[in-house]
Design brief:
The protein has 1167 residues and is of the alpha/beta class. It has 42 helices and 17 strands. Its EC number is 2.7.13.3. It is a multi-pass membrane protein.
Length: 1167
């Protein structure tokens, strides 16, 4: 890849970063991002995941399966379970206005500069190699991505990119002098950077799992085969890295700055308690596929490092965009780490090392704004830090292990942790103990960790390792006191932490803590309690000296805002020449500490409070700033007066004109010579009375009266009505130092409005009375209308109830009468069937059967309508296979269609629906039957289609069609269209049954039709996925002779005779019983029992229904299992279900011969 493409990517990314940062600092950016600040804060903490995340953790995971886990587990555990520690750090940092970890510890330990210097030194030694590691990540990425022909360009590009990073750091983080204030733009850009890092890792992981591996299963196989995450034991090194990384998240300069200094709300910290560990978890999971893929390539003999692999994988599929994305991810991670690390380190070096020295020199007395000097110093320090890191990179870190460098930095910075934790929770910890602990811990760290490394590089004699110094064996660096640790890092942390804590505890216990130290300890241990500072008991300076000192660092405008806030918060007025209060001195110190750090702020205040005289140039500078502020205030006041609607005149304590505005001059047009500063109020009043419409007797008396009133200095309010009708509201208010502010407001329009309201009020009572009378009349009319409507509604409800009762009576009558109606019809059908067995060719018999069939269909339809009208509960639906149902419909109507010369087309399908099989079949039968009846030529189509999660069943025909206005009519009872009468016989109940069944099943029906073109009936049915309901068979193949002994039990002799005649014709031996007693008289059990359900004719019978009688007969025949068929004219589904539960066949009257023979075959032969 061309290095120039990389340079363009770097420049564009840096410009975007700067743009986002600037937008975030704008008012719009701050307002829009305010709701998501907890998420911004949590993502900003992910600056912890630097370039180390992309290279070192992958390398560690491929060499040691669990090596990368503690690096993320430690910080995650700290945020999950160490929340009280973090919360206390944030609270104390905000109360003390600390700007860095060095400033934090210095404030805790008596605000000793030495503590800050020692902490800064430790952090510098740890952070500069860490910054060098990030530069190494960037340079390695550039070198790996550059082709051989561009190698020289890549070397130049390395220097260019490092220069860009340096300039970027200087520009971005040194725009503001205050280091304790929340940086909206920077944190927004850092949080977006965290999302970019995470997105790059996730995309690479997904690419590896689904593209690099042919199948995700290969990835899981590699996890097993290369033993990733397979290690069962957790050694001491694992625990040590968790502890070290957890401590580093507290005190590492960039992490302390983000977590404590940039935390502007505890709500943000509470959100980060779970968001930041979640971020680390996702990062850790992305490492797994990358490590697995790297192991696969390594075992295939490519020998590729993890750094090269991260950027090489996209080349496998020639995905240039992914390569650029990974480079941006690596670069962004390193960039943000370098920016924040250099910023925090430069703040510590400037505030704690350089600034106190600068304040002692002549530079501190420069009359110009001192803040620019501080900013310039920080910029130079940043440049120096990057230069040192670059030199370290060239000298020591060319081929260094990033993981080792990171852990060395973490172990050194860990020496600050005891001082922090002891300072937060142990009141006796003092500066002497902190000095001893940190110095002792660092010395042990150097001896146990760095000395073996230096010996490994040949810089020290190897005898130190084997014999110890001066041949003292128990002082050997790798086996201190004869110890045997598995891991050098564990050995180092154990003894350095032991020495650190022991010395801090012991020295603090035996030394005396100063008063300042005790006060600061109380402020840190109990940050919620207010602790008065007794260092400043009798200051020998004035308030204006402190204000001037503060202004030299932050500017006059900022100091003015701070003083205003202070006065409002304490309800006082700060006087320049007064002696400052202790609270005000502490206020100034906090503001200075936010700019230059606590240590430098304390030094400056001690120098100022020593009582020395101010330098002349400082006095000149102060009064110069004061005069500018006064001039500015005058401009603001003048602009305010000129832009208000009321006239304003200001009189001083001597009643002379001091100020006025343009509106006042318009109301009182005084001559130019009169209207000037210093004109007496007496002259103004006299001129006004002489030139106005005053009608008093003596003008001088009126003047004296008004002057006497003004001289009292009391507030007043008068209303003046001028001759032209103008009304003025005059209000006077005294000024605290004497004088009056008089305002003149034109309230003419307001007075006119009041007059109009008064006139309107006078007419209001009359209008109200008239309106009340109208309302009373309207109420009377309305009550009369309501009564009439109530009477009409009562009549309608009565008529509706009568109609409903009539409909219920009709349905009840038909249901109850069905038995008596169907009994004779049933007998006639059975006789007809018996005759047809012997005289099948007789035309008269055929006509008789047709007539009976028509009568049966009519009565069955009427009964079915009655039954549907009486059903109130939902249908019991089942899974129905449409293809089988369609096939049975085709078998049933194909002959009828063929006889009319029509084509019946039934499209096969594989759909299942949720419905009642028999009811749905009846609907389709009626629709297909009507289509064939009313079609002269062409054909009929039955088809099922998918639509919107359901199935629609459509019946198409090319028949006569239906007019649009007649479509609703065809579903009414006994309705037939005039043009259809001659096409087919009928009474107009078929579609009425279809409508009722569809409503019962909740299957909507739609009709589309054109006259002389054809019609389409469509029923919508919910789709199902399985079938459990076989369709009822219509055709059963039987043998010619049955030769069975059958007992028929029925209380109707006509039905018995008809059944006997039919069954005898089939070769059966038939016995009959008109009552239960006659059935019990049968000594031998028959082959088949045909029994009527209703046996109520014989009141003496113990059993009054067929099902109960069947059970008794089973016992009577000594348990012999006799198959039975129950016949009934009752349309009650409960009877059918009860018969099925006893495994009894069921037939409804009137009985069809073919159905009876099929049921006999099924009951006796199982066919």
């Amino acid at each position: 890849m061309s290095p120039w493409l990389l340079l363009i990517s770097v420049v564009l990314y840096i410009l975007c970063f700067i743009g986002i940062s600037l937008w975030g600092d704008s008012r719009t950016g701050r307002q829009l991002t305010k709701p998501i600040r907890p998420f911004i804060y949590s993502l900003s903490l992910a600056v912890y995941c630097s370039g180390w995340t992309f290279y070192s953790t992958v390398t560690a995971s491929t060499n040691d399966e669990l090596a990368f886990i503690p690096l993320y587990l430690g910080p995650a555990l700290m945020f999950l379970f160490g929340h009280p520690i973090l919360s206390k750090i944030v609270t104390v940092a905000k109360k003390q206005n600390t700007t860095s970890i060095a400033d934090f510890l210095s404030s805790r330990y008596s605000k000793k500069r030495g503590i800050a210097l020692l902490t800064t030194l430790i952090c510098s030694v740890a952070v500069i190699p860490y910054i060098a590691s990030q530069l190494t990540v960037v340079t390695q990425s550039i070198r790996l991505l550059s082709s051989a022909q561009h190698l020289n360009d890549s070397n130049f590009l390395n220097l260019a990119v490092i220069t860009l990073i340096t300039l970027f750091s200087i520009i971005l983080v040194t725009r503001k002098i205050e280091t304790h204030r929340y940086r909206h733009g920077l944190m927004l850009a850092v949080s977006l950077n965290s999302l970019i890092k995470l997105g790059a890792l996730i995309i690479l992981a997904i690419y590896i799992v689904f593209v690099f591996y042919a199948q995700p299963s290969q990835f899981t196989n590699d996890l097993v085969s290369y033993q990733i995450l397979s290690r069962q034991d957790i050694d001491s090194g694992f625990i040590t890295q968790i502890i070290v990384s957890a401590g580093a998240i507290l005190v590492f300069p960039k992490q302390f700055h983000v977590s404590a200094v940039e935390c502007n709300s505890h709500r943000n910290l509470r959100s980060a308690r779970w968001l930041f560990p979640l971020y680390l978890l996702v990062v850790g999971l992305t490492i797994l596929p990358i490590a697995a893929a790297h192991n696969r390539i390594f075992h295939e003999g490519l020998g590729m490092t993890a750094e090269a692999f991260m950027l090489f994988v996209p080349h496998i599929g020639d995905h240039m965009w992914l390569t650029v994305l990974m480079f941006i991810g690596v670069f962004s991670a390193s960039l943000v780490m370098v920016v924040l690390a250099t910023f925090t380190l430069s703040t510590m070096i400037t505030n704690d090392a350089l600034l106190p020295t600068m304040l002692k020199g002549r530079l501190s007395r420069d009359k110009h704004f001192f803040g620019t000097k501080i900013l310039m110093t920080r910029r130079v320090v940043i440049l120096f830090i990057v230069l040192l890191a670059w030199l370290y990179n060239l000298s020591f870190n060319q081929d260094g292990d990033l993981t080792t460098n990171g852990l060395i930095a973490f172990s050194l910075i860990f020496q600050v942790v005891p001082a922090m934790l002891f300072g937060l929770y142990w009141r006796k910890a003092n500066a002497f103990g902190a000095y001893a602990g940190m110095i002792g811990g660092c010395l042990v760290w150097f001896w146990t960790l760095m000395v073996p490394i230096l010996i490994g590089h040949g810089w020290l004699a190897e005898t130190l390792l084997t014999n110890g110094p001066f041949s003292i064996n128990w002082l050997r660096p790798e086996h201190l006191f004869g110890s045997r640790f598995e891991d050098p890092l564990t050995h180092c942390i154990f003894f350095s932490l032991l020495a650190n804590c022991f010395l801090l505890f012991q020295i603090s216990s035996v030394t005396k803590t100063t008063l300042t130290g005790r006060l600061q300890a109380a402020a840190f241990i109990l940050p919620s309690h207010h602790s008065h500072d007794t260092r400043y008991q009798k200051p020998n300076i004035k308030t204006n000296e402190l204000v001037n000192l503060l202004a030299r660092f932050s500017g006059d405008a900022q100091v003015k805002n701070w003083l205003t806030d202070y006065e409002l918060a304490h309800n006082i007025h700060v006087l320049n020449n007064a002696e400052p209060s202790i609270d005000f001195i502490r206020f100034v110190e906090r503001k200075l500490a936010g700019i230059v750090g606590a240590n430098s702020a304390r030094a400056m205040l001690q120098s100022t409070l020593s009582g020395r005289d101010m330098y002349l140039e400082e006095v000149v500078s102060f009064f110069d700033a004061t005069s500018k502020a006064i001039h500015f205030n005058q401009q603001v006041l003048s602009s305010t007066l000129e832009n208000i609607d009321s006239g304003v005149a200001v009189m001083d304590r001597h009643l002379k004109l001091a100020a006025w505005n343009k509106t006042y001059l318009e109301m009182y047009p005084y001559p130019t010579e009169k209207l000037k500063v210093g004109t007496a109020a007496e002259d103004l009043i006299r001129h006004h009375l002489i030139n106005s419409d005053f009608h008093g007797a003596d003008i001088e008396d009126e003047i004296n009266k008004r002057l006497k009133y003004l001289s009292t200095g009391s507030a007043f309010n008068f209303i003046r009505v001028r001759k032209n009708g103008q009304v003025l509201d005059m209000r006077g208010n005294p000024i605290p130092d004497g004088g009056l502010v008089i305002t003149f407001s034109d309230i003419t329009e307001h007075v006119q409005t009041q007059e109009a309201l008064k006139q309107s009020k006078q007419n209001l009572e009359q209008r109200v009375a008239e309106r009340t009378a109208q309302i009373d009349q309207m109420n009377k009319d309305l009550r009369a209308e309501i009564k009439e409507r109530e009477r009409a509604q009562t009549l309608l409800l009565e008529a509706k109830n009568e109609a409903e009762q009539a409909n219920k009576s009709k349905s009840r009558f038909l249901a109850l009468a069905s038995h008596d109606i169907l009994q004779p019809l049933n007998a006639a059908r059975l006789y007809s069937a018996a005759l047809h067995e012997n005289y099948s060719e007789d035309a008269t018999l055929t006509k008789l059967e047709s007539a009976l069939r028509s009568t049966e269909e009519l009565i069955s339809t009427l009964l079915e309508i009655a039954k549907l009208d009486g059903i109130s509960k939902d249908a019991l639906k089942e899974n129905v296979e449409l293809n089988s149902l369609f096939n049975s419909i085709a078998d049933e109507f194909s002959a009828q269609a063929k006889n009319k010369g029509l084509r019946l087309i039934v499209r096969p399908n594989n759909y299942f629906v949720k419905s009642e099989a028999r009811s749905l079949r009846r609907v389709i039968q009626n629709l297909v039957s009507n289509a064939i009846k009313y079609t002269r030529n062409g054909g009929v189509l039955l088809v099922a289609r998918k639509r919107q999660g359901g199935i629609v069943i459509q019946v198409w025909d090319s028949g006569l069609g239906i007019a649009e206005e007649d479509i609703k009519q065809i579903f009414e009872d006994f309705q037939r269209l005039d043009q259809h009468h001659h096409e087919a016989e009928g009474v107009g109940l078929g579609l009425a049954v279809v409508s009722r069944i569809s409503q019962h099943l909740n299957h909507p029906i739609e009709v589309k039709s054109k006259v002389n073109k054809g019609s389409m009936f469509e029923i919508s049915v919910p789709e199902s996925t399985a079938t459990n309901s076989p369709l009822p068979a219509e055709v059963v193949h039987t043998a010619h002779q049955l030769a069975l002994n059958i007992l028929v039990v029925d209380d109707d002799s006509r039905n018995i005779d008809a059944l006997k005649t039919l069954l005898t014709g089939w070769g059966c031996q038939v016995s009959t019983a008109l009552s239960a007693q006659q059935a019990f008289d049968q000594s031998e059990a028959p082959d088949l029992l045909i029994i009527d359900y209703d046996l109520t004719k014989d009141k003496r019978d113990k059993q009054n229904n067929g099902l109960a009688l069947y059970s008794e007969l089973q016992q009577h025949w000594q348990g012999k299992k006799v198959p039975a068929i129950l016949v009934t004219a009752h349309p009650d589904l409960a009877i059918k279900q009860a018969a099925e539960e006893q495994n009894i066949g069921y037939l409804s009257k009137p009985i069809k011969a073919i159905a009876l023979r099929a049921m006999i075959n099924a009951s006796v032969y199982g066919r």
